[in-house]
């Protein structure tokens, strides 16, 4: 699909499939086109070109049928300031044709039971997000859309929300989310699509994306053995060995067997190490490699 | 199609009553002003009986207060719609099976209900404190006020569609609506206005609303005001069509 606002091309030639029962993440920096893409899929925006099919339905033509079967959490959404938590849940429950989920149970699962009678305006950021998740789940949807779910939350709330999202998948639902947090994508998503400047750069599981774009491994260790550097340099696949100070050694290389080979070398040469760790590239490194810029820029 | 209308309407009424200034500003203040002005005019009745006999107390004041009720309902609608849009509430509601017309109708219903309640309170208070003309056909008048408010609400939708932010909603609405009242024939008969203003008054919906309200209050038949009703209906249709074109959800 393609979507423009005036002369600005928001997304172009964006194409992907989301599989049944997976957590699929659209990742990229702010302004990359994540929300535009998601809102077209939800039926809130009409793409200029292209076709979208969600559960076999057309988000533009069949929007009301589609809304019965999906749950949506929007970025930066608000509710009426003085609506009570239970009122929002009950209003939402009344809007769907099919039998809704048990609102009070949802509130309990999301830890909002004691906030049941609180006004929306008095909730904390994390509580608001959990309420929005409850509203997205109230119609027992087949697909749940979560747009920048944890932005602005503290690390503790963020982790709690990740667990909730995994719980949604465990119930057999499909989750489609956007995030600009690489850690979130890496920990939560079964597959991710990297989007930058309105185009999809690559789609795969986080592990395979890392293996494909950032095959190099780094091993850091602490040893005072004098010949350690020479031993490591003889291992096939090692690109560089650096000693940053008297103790610290860094080995860089590529290949599946690199770590095994280094450990074997330590053992054969009876090299004593006081610290040993492997540093694997992350999605953040993948992003930098495939787009040429950091996701924070 | 209209699923959720009653739930949303009831909820919006509750939320409205929780606003600290909402109920007070839109319901209590018009009633207090009405009673206050009425006592002032009524108090001078002993010395100047002609004042009471002139149309002021019997017709103009109730109609004026009613128009104020209608306008405050419209301004309140414009403000709420723009706050809801700015806060992303409209967008969030729209991402449910709620139809756009259901969301807007719920707000119109709340405002019309509020108008009816305020009118009732005003009349009760008026009867208690000074002799309002009891012969006024209250049911017909209430209906006329609802028709007028409904029609002007459609102008409210157009205003709500074009104001950029909630901060502008109230002033822009006031600038458009209050001059309409000035030319409506409520203070100066339309026929006494300069020709240019007369022509302007004849295209403004408030003129027809005031004519309808005054007539019904005085006990005239509905059939004498078909032109007014037709004009208000036309404004309503045009307003809804225009705002359907111009309306922005975010």
* SS elements, strand count of chain B: 0
Structural class computed from helices and strand pairing of chain B: mainly alpha
What is the quaternary state of this protein?
A: heterodimer
Number of helices of chain A: 11
Number of helices of chain B: 11
Q: How would you spell out the order of helices and strands of chain A?
A: EEEHHEHHHEHEHEEHEHEEHEH
Distance between the termini of chain A: 26 Å
- Biggest sheet descriptor of chain B: none
Mean pLDDT figure of chain A: 92
Task: Please state how the strands of the largest beta sheet of chain A are arranged side by side.
Answer: 4-5-6-3-7-8
What does this structure look like?
The complex is a heterodimer of chains A (297) and B (250). By secondary structure, chain A is an alpha/beta fold. Chain A folds into 2 domains: 3-210, Rossmann fold (3-Layer(aba) Sandwich); 215-280, Alpha-Beta Plaits. In chain A, 35% of the residues lie in helices and 22% in strands. Chain A has a 6-stranded mixed beta sheet with strand order 4-5-6-3-7-8, with helices on both faces. In chain A, strands 10-11-9-12 form a 4-stranded antiparallel beta sheet. In chain A, helix 8 crosses helix 11. The radius of gyration of chain A is 24 Å and the shape is elongated. The model of chain A has no long low-confidence stretch (mean pLDDT 92). By secondary structure, chain B is mainly alpha-helical. Chain B has one domain. Helices cover 78% and strands 0% of the residues of chain B. Chain B has helices at 5-18, 22-43, 49-53, 55-86, 89-94, 100-129, 138-162, 166-182, 195-203, 205-217, 226-246. The model of chain B is unreliable at 44-53 (pLDDT under 50).
How would you summarize the topology of this molecule?
The complex is a heterodimer of chains A (297) and B (250).
Chain A: E1 3-5, E2 8-11, E3 23-27, H1 34-42, H2 63-69, E4 70-73, H3 85-94, H4 103-109, H5 125-137, E5 143-147, H6 155-170, E6 174-179, H7 182-188, E7 191-196, E8 199-204, H8 206-213, E9 216-222, H9 228-233, E10 238-243, E11 248-254, H10 258-268, E12 275-279, H11 283-291
Parallel strand pairs in A: 3-6, 3-7, 4-5, 5-6
Antiparallel strand pairs in A: 1-2, 7-8, 9-11, 9-12, 10-11
Chain B: H1 5-18, H2 22-43, H3 49-53, H4 55-86, H5 89-94, H6 100-129, H7 138-162, H8 166-182, H9 195-203, H10 205-217, H11 226-246
Helix pairs in contact in B: 1-6, 2-4, 2-6, 4-6, 4-7, 4-8, 4-10, 6-7, 7-10, 7-11, 10-11
């Amino acid at each position: 699909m393609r979507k423009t606002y005036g002369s600005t091309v928001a997304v172009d030639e964006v194409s992907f499939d989301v599989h049944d029962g997976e957590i699929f993440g659209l990742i990229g920096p702010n302004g990359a086109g994540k929300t535009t893409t998601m809102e077209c899929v939800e039926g809130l925006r009409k793409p200029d070109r292209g076709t979208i099919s969600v559960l076999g339905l057309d988000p533009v033509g069949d929007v009301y049928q589609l809304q019965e079967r999906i749950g949506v959490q929007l970025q930066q959404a608000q509710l009426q300031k003085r609506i009570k938590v239970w009122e929002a849940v009950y209003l939402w429950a009344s809007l769907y044709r099919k039998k809704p989920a048990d609102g009070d149970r949802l509130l309990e699962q999301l830890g909002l039971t004691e906030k049941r009678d609180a006004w929306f305006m008095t909730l904390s950021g994390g509580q608001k997000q959990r309420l929005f998740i409850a509203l997205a789940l109230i119609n027992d949807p087949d697909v749940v859309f979560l747009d920048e779910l944890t932005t602005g939350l503290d690390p503790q709330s963020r982790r709690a929300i990740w667990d909730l999202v995994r719980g949604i998948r465990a119930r057999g639902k499909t989750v489609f989310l956007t995030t600009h947090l690489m850690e979130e994508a890496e920990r939560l998503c079964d597959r991710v699509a990297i989007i930058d400047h309105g185009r999809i750069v690559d789609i795969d599981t986080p592990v395979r994306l890392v293996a494909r774009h950032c095959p190099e491994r780094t091993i850091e260790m602490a040893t005072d053995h004098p010949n350690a550097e020479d031993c490591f340099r003889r291992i096939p696949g090692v690109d560089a060995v650096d000693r940053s100070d008297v103790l610290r050694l860094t080995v860089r290389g590529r290949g599946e067997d690199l770590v095994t080979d280094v450990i074997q070398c330590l053992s054969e040469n009876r090299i004593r190490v006081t610290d040993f760790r492997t540093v694997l590239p992350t999605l953040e490194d993948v992003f930098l490699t495939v787009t040429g810029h950091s996701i924070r820029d | 199609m209209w699923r959720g209308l009653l739930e949303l309407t009831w909820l919006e009424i509750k939320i409205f009553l929780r606003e600290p200034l909402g109920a007070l500003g839109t319901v209590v203040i018009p009633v207090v002003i009405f009673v206050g002005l009425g006592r002032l005019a009524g108090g001078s009745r002993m010395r100047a009986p002609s004042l009471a006999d002139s149309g002021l107390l019997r017709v103009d004041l109730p109609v004026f207060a009613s128009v104020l009720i209608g306008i405050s309902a419209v301004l309140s609608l414009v403000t709420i719609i723009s706050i809801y849009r700015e806060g992303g509430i409209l967008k969030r509601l729209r991402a449910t099976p709620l139809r756009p017309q259901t969301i807007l109708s719920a707000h119109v219903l709340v405002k019309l209900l509020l108008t009816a309640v305020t009118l009732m309170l005003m009349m009760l208070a008026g009867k208690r404190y000074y002799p309002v003309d009891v012969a006024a056909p209250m049911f017909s008048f209430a209906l006329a006020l609802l028709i007028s408010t409904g029609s002007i609400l459609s102008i409210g939708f157009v205003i709500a569609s074009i104001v950029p932010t909630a901060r502008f909603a109230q002033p822009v609405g006031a600038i458009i609506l209050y001059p309409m009242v000035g030319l409506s024939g409520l203070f100066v008969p339309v026929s006494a206005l300069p020709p240019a203003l007369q022509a302007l008054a004849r295209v403004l919906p408030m003129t027809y609303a005031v004519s309808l309200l005054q007539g019904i209050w005085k006990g005239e038949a509905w059939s004498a005001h078909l032109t007014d009703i037709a004009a208000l209906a036309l404004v309503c249709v045009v307003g809804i069509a225009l705002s359907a074109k111009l309306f922005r959800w975010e």
